[in-house]
């Protein structure tokens, strides 16, 4: 599976992205368990609300962190997220 750059990206309704106070990080909760996220992964997934496509997510994060060149890293992470069912298109 690969990300379709023209379609909006939505976090899966079968999973829940939430801040875990005890661990001081975002996690993905699902019936079989939990995935701890680093800050970069959480920032990407927080943008997956169905209102943005790949280019819009990249642009927003590059602006937010005042940097460029995030395309490959963000795309690679979103492809893993899509394969794991964390996001959908």
How would you describe this protein?
This protein has 89 residues and is of the alpha+beta class. The chain has a single domain, classed as Arc Repressor Mutant, subunit A. 36% of the residues lie in helices and 21% in strands. It contains 3 helices and 5 strands. The chain has a 3-stranded antiparallel beta sheet with strand order 2-3-4, covered by helices on one side. It has a two-stranded antiparallel sheet with strand order 1-5. Strand 3 and strand 4 (33-36) form a beta hairpin. The protein is globular and about 30 Å long.
- Report the end-to-end length measured between terminal Cα atoms: 11 Å
Q: Number of helical segments?
A: 3
CATH architectural category = Orthogonal Bundle
Task: Summarize model confidence as the mean pLDDT.
Answer: 97
CATH level-3 fold name: Arc Repressor Mutant, subunit A
The helix/strand series, from N terminus to C terminus, equals: EEEEHHHE
Summarize the structure.
With 89 residues, the protein is α+β, with helices and mostly antiparallel strands.
